[in-house]
Amino acid sequence: MGQKRYFDYVRPITAIRYLYHDKSIPSWHRAGEGPEMIDGAEWTPYQPTWFPSPPFAEYTSGHSAFSAAGAEVLKQFTGSDYYGGSVTIPAGSSSVEPGVAPRTDITLSWDTFSAASDEAGMSRRYGGIHFRAADLNGRSVGREVGRNAWLKATRYFLGLG
Questions:
Q1: From CA 67, how far away is CA 81, in angstroms rounded?
Q2: How open is the CA angle 44-50-55, to the nearest 5 degrees?
Q3: Helix axes 62-78 and 113-126, enclosed angle (nearest 10)
């Protein structure tokens, strides 16, 4: 049985709506006007309205796991954690607040595969999809999977199956 079925953890959207129902809580305003106070039962994560949260358990974070696994394999393949990659997000290109966010072009850069992987995991927390434990444990599982995948692939490359 996989971790998601075993743990069956609640997503942030469900927990916040349940715990803060009929309570006023701060939340960002979709129109790019900054935070506002809302009823906790109306809270939504920073995701497109048509897909606010995945329809399966929260723990562990698959994005954190496969990002960490990929970083681990790339480190082994290249012999270094160095990455040096970057991407520029054009102003107004957000799928959550199109035409509004980001207000200016934003360039994200990562010196290492590990840093890129860690930021991918953090993005799931910033987006309101995962809690901290799911992200960090997903990263840990991913690093282990990546190391094992590299060892297995190396055995195949050497003809040792």
A1: 14
A2: 75
A3: 170
Residue 93: is it exposed, middle or buried by C-beta count within 10 angstroms (0-12/13-18/19+)? middle
Tell me the pLDDT of the chain averaged across its residues. 93
Q: How confident is the model at residue 35 (pLDDT cuts 50, 70, 90)?
A: confident
Which of 46, 55, 42 is CA-nearest to residue 11?
55
Nearest Cα to Cα of residue 119 among 139, 94, 96? 139
Domain range list for the chain:
3-157
pLDDT of residue 8: 85
pLDDT at 123 exceeding the cut of 90: yes
The whole model's pTM is what?
0.88
Which DSSP category does 28 fall into?
E
Amino acid 14: pLDDT: 94
Residues whose CB falls within 8 Å of the CB of residue 102, separated by 6 or more in sequence, listed in order = 89, 91, 92, 93, 94
